[in-house]
Amino acid sequence: MSSPSVAKFIVKRPWLKNWMMPLAKWYRDAAGYRKLGLKADDLIPEENDTVLLALKRLPPKEAYDRVYRLRRAFQCSLTHHLLPPDQQTKPEEDRLYLTPLIKEIEAEKKEREDLEVMVPKKKTA
Question: Could you give the CA distance from residue 125 to residue 23 in angstroms, rounded to a whole number?
């Protein structure tokens, strides 16, 4: 999940952020996942152990909603139709629900690795 990103670089520079935001909005709309009723975190591949653990930590309602969105999008894909505009995901509804859990799990793994590397030293009297 830790892929290289220039997001922090762009956000730190207001002029660059102002220049990139229209391009980012256009790209999000062009991606088309909202037209199928999906959220951005629904597109994260599940092959990673970290993502699988994050999916297990989701609240039951959020997990059910995710499965429903994926099945509905798959059905739309099979029939080559898009959802009606009133059923498509609105930009204000497209919030990250899985990414915070993934970051939390990655931080836990890093902390666990750091603690396993520590070597205890005995005090000599």
Answer: 66
Distance CA 122, CA 69 (A): 56
Higher pLDDT: 123 or 30? It is 30
> pLDDT tens across 13-69, in order?
999 989 998 998 898 888 899 999 999 999 999 999 999 999 999 999 999 999 999
AA letter at 78: L
Q: Counting runs of H as helices and runs of E as strands, what totals does the chain give?
A: 5, 0
Other CB atoms within a 10 A radius of the CB of residue 124 amount to 4
Which residues have a Cβ under 8 Å from the Cβ of 28 and sit 6 or more positions away? Answer: 34, 40, 91
The 8-class DSSP code of residue 85 comes to T
Amino acid occupying residue 107: A
Please name which of 109, 1, 114 lies closest in space to residue 47, comparing C-alpha atoms: 1
